UniProtKB/TrEMBL annotation:
Transmembrane segments: 6-21, 33-52, 64-87, 99-121, 127-149, 161-179, 185-202
Membrane topology listed for this record: Multi-pass membrane protein
GO CC annotation terms, alphabetical: plasma membrane
GO biological process assignments: proteolysis
Name by which UniProt lists this protein: Protease PrsW
Main location, first listed in the record: membrane
Keywords: Cell membrane, Hydrolase, Membrane, Protease, Transmembrane, Transmembrane helix
Family of this protein: Belongs to the protease PrsW family.
A GO MF term: peptidase activity
NCBIfam families (UniProt xref): intramemb_PrsW
């Protein structure tokens, strides 16, 4: 059991450490980051409950609508809503790069609990593929969400970027889930998509870091 939990949790911690260490300018309070991780972990259960009820009640007759459109919107909405409700106005959210960290943290909280539950059901044989795909994709969706959330808070186009913080991860998630529906051909499409997703998200990290430097300069902290 201990080995299984370690394998399930390790990818999330590794990815979060990567994005945390990319912030070379300042240290973010660990307590607030832990809170956002816990929020992400907590929403796993209502999301799974909603998905279970809708499946049992056969609300959706089209698998694409259920597993691609609805699941993507549901998961990203919960993450976006909690980020906005609990983190967006928090005093510790005080620079553009913070959005990256909080977005990654809440997404990895969700992905880690989901990963634990999945490995408990199907065993550690799937751990490597889970780390490469679901865990890392959730982290990258969170990075994109957090980037636009930071843009929303620290630019004048608040509503535009607030909507992008929700819609951009939803679109990426829909594409990801849609690829999984391709059956035998899914892996051939997933590899270039994941390369694109990493490139896209890391570009947002780089841009957020540049915004942070400008922000600190404007605040006379550099």
């Amino acid at each position: 059991m201990f080995i299984l939990l370690t394998v399930a949790i390790a990818p999330g911690l590794a990815l979060f450490s990567y994005f945390y260490l990319r912030n070379e300018m300042k240290t973010e309070p660990g307590k607030t980051l832990l809170q956002s991780f816990v929020y992400g972990a907590a929403i796993t259960f209502p999301i799974l409950f909603i998905q279970y009820v809708l499946t049992e009640e056969v609300v959706f007759t089209n698998p694409f609508v259920q597993h691609v459109l609805f699941t993507s919107v549901l998961e990203e909405f919960f993450k976006w809503f909690l980020l906005y409700l609990a983190i967006y106005h928090h005093v510790e959210f005080d620079d553009p790069y913070d959005g990256i960290l909080y977005g990654a943290s809440i997404s990895l909280g969700f992905a880690t609990v989901e990963n634990v539950l999945y490995l408990l059901s199907y065993g550690v044989d799937t751990a490597f593929m889970r780390a490469l795909l679901p865990v890392s994709s959730h982290a990258l969706f969170g990075v994109v969400m957090g980037y636009y959330l930071g843009k929303s808070k620290f630019t004048k186009r608040t509503k535009k970027y607030l909507w992008l913080a929700f819609l951009a991860p939803v679109l990426l998630h829909i594409v990801y889930n849609g690829i999984l529906m391709l059956e035998d051909a899914w892996l051939y499409v997933m590899i270039p998509f994941m390369l694109f997703l990493w490139t896209f998200a890391l570009r947002k990290v780089k841009m957020a870091h540049a915004h942070l430097i400008i922000h600190l300069y404007d605040q006379n902290k550099l």
